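This is your field. Pick holes in the following sequence-structure pair:
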Amino acid sequence: MRAPSVRRPFMRETSAFATSLLAFIVRLAFTLVSVFALGPVFTLVSVFALMPAFTLPAAAQTVRADPSIEAIRLANAGESAAAIPLFEEAFSRSFSWIVADKAGAAYAEAGEAERGERFFRGLTGRDESLPAPILFAIARIHAGTERALDEYEASLRRDPAQCLVWRRYIDDANEQKELARARAFLETAAPSPERTFARGHLARREGDHEASRALLEEALAAGADPGWVIASLGAVYMAQSEWERAIDSYGSSLSTLAARGDIELAALVEASRGYAAMRLGRYEDAFDFFREAVRGTGATGRYRLEIQYAAAASECAIRLGRYEDANEWTDAARRRAREVGSPALEYYAIGSWADYMIRTGEFESVARELEPLATGTPDERSPGMLRLLLHLARAKKSAGDLAGAARWYEELAARSADEALLRAAAYEGLAETHLLRGQAREAERCQRDAIAVYREARDPEAALQAEADLARVFESQGRYQEALDALFAILPEERATQNAGRLSVRLSGIANLYDFLGNYREALRYRTEALEAVEQTGDSLGMAQERANLGLLQLKAGSYAEADSNLERSLRLVRSLG
């Protein structure tokens, strides 16, 4: 038996419109005949008779913008109560799975679960045999509960061809540690491309990236929604450090997302492309990707993400030596935070400003502005505040206030118990501060703590960076061979990451150590390779610095003509950057 339509209110107005239009056409034909057959007097009467016949229904008389767009923007901005009436207006006219996803979350956040369920059930006129879209909307209202999983499964039994519902079901099951239930349901569900997508998504959540990739590629070939599938494939490639494939995969999904108007997911995909491009050192491309992401998140009210992506765009501009662009994006982030009036967002935006100011050498200005905020909010543990503490500690360290830096790194470590990556960054900052204070043993201990946290958090690239920093600790103690061994141990993995920028740093470190040991032949070999790597990134400042390092090493080795050439080229590049 076919489920009742969820478009009934809209269809009633469409039917009324069609009836009145037919009446208008009949009377119009009669009027035209009268012009030629019965003369002007009768024609005038006919026109007056015609005018009231073409009366549009209220919805057809005024073409209104889709209220769901404003509803999503308000819900994303945390104004769920204001968004609910707009969601209800939108669903009274037509139905969208993506909007239902947002609406369900808005009802829950506003504490209006009963109102939401009553509204959605009322769309059909009865409670039994609810259509799949209604069941999904109700599941979103009750997300995170057993009731939600029941509604998801009922929705999927009615209409299994919805990647969005499969994904939400698995995500909620994952949050509740009920993946066994999801697996069991997948085993009994009827075979379909969407079910294959769901199995791939589940495998990715469980960390089996090879199985996830195979299943997602199978789902794509079988005809599952390419927008969702390709975006999920991109996430798998990112997890496996296949940055080029991630960028290509995300890019392939954008046309599908644009065609169906999914601005929000398209913005998230653009940002993912940006992070992948940054991993490869392709800062020009990353800047363009983040710029598009900022536009999309701003249009849909995802202000935290908008500020985060603006900060990433600013970082890319700094890497490219485009300081005016960086300052513009940082200012935009701060303005948006003030407009929204959210303290947590403002902390995040101020952190973006601090990052920019630290990179341009304004250490004391940053410390003066941030320290009162950090001191006045001793219990604040939002991501924005934790990031602000990190910048404050870095500013103190760069300004030479090592005791102050150690204090704020320790404060960050204490506040970030639930934020592993920030806690690891605090340990690394402490290690560097101890080094500057001549406390090598304490520095080694903190650096090993950072490595352990990164490994626990399953962030292999961050762990590689921390192990490279451990080599610097050895170097500071004159333990050059141990430092070389540490760098050579991670060099194969660094080459495999395809990150030319980071590889250039590792190769430069090896060159420095060979230089200290007096082995100029090996030092020149690795210094030249480091320059070739940084040239792949487009990082103008990095290229200038690395070419100058090569020139200075050539002076030591007695290659004066080559040294003069490289130092002159480095100087010209720096001047070209202003």
